[in-house]
Amino acid sequence: MCGVVGIVGKQPVNQALYDGLTMLQHRGQNAAGIMTIDGYNLRLRKGNGLVRDVFHTRHMRRLSGNIGIGHVRYPTAGSSSSAEAQPFYVNSPFGIAMAHNGNLTNSNELQQSLFETAKRHINTASDSEVLLNIFAHEIMRENQMHLSADDMFAAVSRVHQQVKGAYAVVAMVIGHGMVAFRDPFGIRPLAIGKRETSQGTEYMVASESVAIDGTGFTFMRDVEPGEAVYITEEGELFSRQCAENPVHIPCIFEYVYFARPDSFIDGVSVYASRINMGRKLGEKIKKEYKNLDIDVIIPIPETACDIALEISRVLDKPYRQGFVKNRYIGRTFIMPGQTQRRKSVRRKLNAIGSEFKGKNVLLVDDSIVRGTTSEQIIEMAREAGANKVYFASAAPEIRFPNVYGIDMPSANELIGYGREVDEISQLIKADALIYQDLDDLIWSAQVENSNLKQFESSVFSGHYVTGDIDQTYLDRLHAARNDSKQEEQEQEESNLALYNEAD
Ligand SMILES: O=P(O)(O)OC[C@H]1O[C@H](OP(=O)(O)OP(=O)(O)O)[C@H](O)[C@@H]1O
Ligand SMILES: NC(=O)CC[C@H](N)C(=O)O
Ligand SMILES: [Mg+2]
Predict the structure, then answer these.
(1) Which CATH class is domain 271-325+347-447?
(2) Binding site membership: which residues?
(3) Cofactor: bound how, per the entry note (predicted)?
(4) Does 262 sit in the ligand 1 pocket, CB within 6 Å?
(5) Centroid of ligand 2 to alpha carbon of 438 (angstroms)
(6) Between β-strands 227-232 and 177-182, what pairing exists: parallel, antiparallel or unpaired?
(7) Per-residue pLDDT averaged across 280-308, rounded?
(8) Across all residues in the chain, what is the average pLDDT?
(9) pLDDT by residue (tens digit) across 66-81?
(10) Is the terminal CB of the chain with fewer CB neighbours within 10 Å at N or C?
């Protein structure tokens, strides 16, 4: 789940892009990048690391210009090499830069057809570089020296016709302006805001509303599924629906885990949806698990805290912060590589013994994916002297891979794959394990915006909304991206960087 941001301003945009990226840091902690347009030049800084580590004063000075885009990356294709950090750039036509959140499901086929029909070479294994080249090729086909808004939208329409999967995109075209678009299902989020200045209106597009609020812009609206927004260099805004049959099916996992609670996505407050998840899960425990003699509710920080607080209210049991989170360690789930993820749990979380000693504790997490966190946390609770350790998950059993921008490529790396709840409970060594029901999870988000009729919830149901995912695809994905394969790839792909900037 990467984060994207783009600004067309009336003054230098480097600092606002940087600030926006820090507010999207929870979406990607592997690499960061900013590209700006200054006249007819593009300026770039990108690399592996957190925003604060990638950009130093000397880089910020170089990022001059009033238009720019930025990206924080959590890899779901290719490797975590800096060669695949974003934004990506292609020199023709005009000079185009792009930042992408999501994952394409037909990127291999597109890469091949780009080579055969357009003689375009893709140098990395990143699906985002493919998407940029498809967009560039479609702009080329407009065959204009200066593109009108109609030309830009025609190019985006043809992108929608070819590309499958999830994509929320910001792009810049030199001499023109910024284009942002969202796939026809609106799987990944994208919002737009504005800021009035004495020189005129500035616009910002970002993955989450928190980046818009936090930089002094005012949230205007979400970009619609299939819609494209074009803001010219002069600051004129155009928008158009570019998909033939858009159907809004946003990703439910944004609400469960990815997004910040203070964001609104597609009219739903992420915080409110998490409170609702806690309420439903609390009610289920109250009704179906009367025999559990729970003394205390303890969240697994950080994402589960709001959920656990509401469970404690419903069950009328005390809520205690039994685990302290080391704030200098990042989110474990979005780290590349299982070895790193396993090691990080103990470094990140530490128990406060007095909250566990002799007590029956209910630990609450937002989700159990590989089981890396839950297994180690339960062990820590026992070591801290807990009597009984019960575990509740605000998301149902995760049993299927994700192909739309969450790095869960292999079913057999998921602890819920092919296992009943009892077996999972035994594996993580819980005294009881309670999962949310899928209908209740969906209700938790939908009740905040009744216009949303469906949610992308393939990891729970195995139903993939783009209609192009079959077992052959999933087998190929597993072969390409299982944990050991990814570790091999890291070595090979770290040498692919073509950009050549001083550090
Ligand atoms: O079953 P697993 O494979 O361990 O994945 C699930 C865990 O990973 C996430 O936490 P993370 O540490 O990434 O971030 P957080 O601090 O926002 O909770 C999520 O909140 C769960 O705790
Ligand atoms: N999580 C994402 O949105 C990833 C974007 C893109 N697929 C990449 O791997 O860089
Ligand atoms: Mg967590």
Answers:
(1) alpha beta
(2) 303, 365-366
(3) Binds 1 Mg(2+) ion per subunit.
(4) no
(5) 26
(6) antiparallel
(7) 97
(8) 95
(9) 999 999 999 998 888 8
(10) C
Query: What homologous superfamily is domain 3-247 in, according to CATH?
Result: Aminohydrolase, N-terminal nucleophile (Ntn) domain (3.60.20.10)
- Nearest CA to 70 out of 95, 96, 100 is that of 100
| Ligand 1 pocket member 257 (CB < 6 A) | yes
pLDDT at 406: 92
Question: Could you say which of 2, 242, 251, 305 is catalytic?
Answer: 2
Position in ligand 2 atom list of the atom nearest CA 166: 3
Domain boundaries in the chain?
A: 3-247, 271-325+347-447
Mean pLDDT of 177-198: 98
Sequence length of the chain is: 503
* pLDDT of the residue at 140: 96
Interior CA angle at 85 toward 81 and 89, to 5°? 125
Which two tokens mark 117? 């029909």
pLDDT for 45 beyond 90: yes
> Which pLDDT belongs to residue 496?
66
Binding residues for Mg(2+): 303, 365-366
Quick check: ipTM above 0.95? yes
> Does the active-site annotation cover 2?
yes
**Quick one: which ligand is closest to 332's CA?**
1
* Residue 487 scores a pLDDT above 80: no
Alpha helix ranges (H) inside 254-371: 270-288, 305-315, 338-348
In this structure, what DSSP letter does residue 437 have?
A: -
Residue 77 Cβ inside 6 Å of ligand 2? The answer reads: yes
Pocket test for ligand 2, best of 21, 24, 127 (most atoms within 8 A of CB): 127
Count of H helices and E strands in the chain? 17, 21
Q: What number of CA atoms fall less than 13 Å from residue 144's CA on the CB side?
A: 14
pLDDT in tens, 311-338: 999 999 999 999 999 999 888 888 877 8
Q: What is the pLDDT of residue 338?
A: 80
Q: Output the pLDDT for position 312.
A: 98
Neighbour order of strands in the sheet with 165-173: 88-90, 96-104, 165-173, 177-182, 227-232, 237-241
Residues 403 and 464: their CA atoms lie apart, in Å, by: 8
CA atoms within 13 A on the CB side of 239: 16
| Span from the CA of 86 to the centroid of ligand 2 (angstroms) | 9
What distance in angstroms lies between residue 304's CA and the mean position of ligand 3's atoms? 6
Q: How far is the CA of 3 from the centre of ligand 2 (A)?
A: 9
Are the CB atoms for 28 and 73 separated by under 8 Å? Answer: yes
Mutate to test the pocket of ligand 2, among 126, 169, 258 (most ligand atoms within 8 A of CB): 126
CA-nearest residue for atom 1, ligand 2, is 1
Token pair recorded at residue 212: 């818009």
Does the pLDDT of residue 494 top 70, yes or no? no
- Going from the Cα of 128 to the center of ligand 2, the distance in angstroms, rounded, reads 7
Give residue-wise pLDDT tens across range 439-477.
999 999 999 999 999 999 999 999 999 999 999 999 999
Residue 29 CB less than 6 A away from ligand 1: no
Question: With contact defined as beta carbons under 8 Å apart, do 84 and 493 qualify?
Answer: yes
